[in-house]
């Protein structure tokens, strides 16, 4: 993943994001995936260039502790493993979470994403996954839905709709991209419906607003619907 400086320009009530790349992009690849290199879609986020936070370091090693409990692999080995994976992912960029680090908040977030991806891919139990940092909280909820893992206990989950679908309405005729969802197992799904979202949130100290998923993710997890973009 490459970072580059960008400038936000306002013109006639419209906002334009202008960026300069440090190296020539692969125009053939762009044209292959988008049909044109003169106009195409990109994913972007604002890089937080502040120095990586001590909370991120604590979270990183807490997650490594969870992996150690599950696998028996030493923490130092896991640390080096994910540092090397980060270096490969960023095409040679190195990272450190020490007190004297020059790595940024965004760098640390990328490292944490790699660890969280690993834990979901290999079904490593989170001891207290819902207490992740605020930035990681939505990512954790997304991965719970993506892998159909209960956000409370880690068991196989159903997709719970926060925005209730009325009785008699066919779920296959609903555009689920416009609704907020959560991943909950049968037990916790029943419990939130019995005691209500406010009591459920207070009991488990979890957000209950849910998140919205894109069409591709919804289809991948088998949630059939009538999507406006089809």
UniProtKB/TrEMBL annotation:
<dbReference type="InterPro" id="IPR041242">
    <property type="entry name" value="HNHc_6"/>
</dbReference>
<dbReference type="Pfam" id="PF16784">
    <property type="entry name" value="HNHc_6"/>
</dbReference>
<protein>
    <recommendedName>
        <fullName>Phage protein</fullName>
    </recommendedName>
</protein>
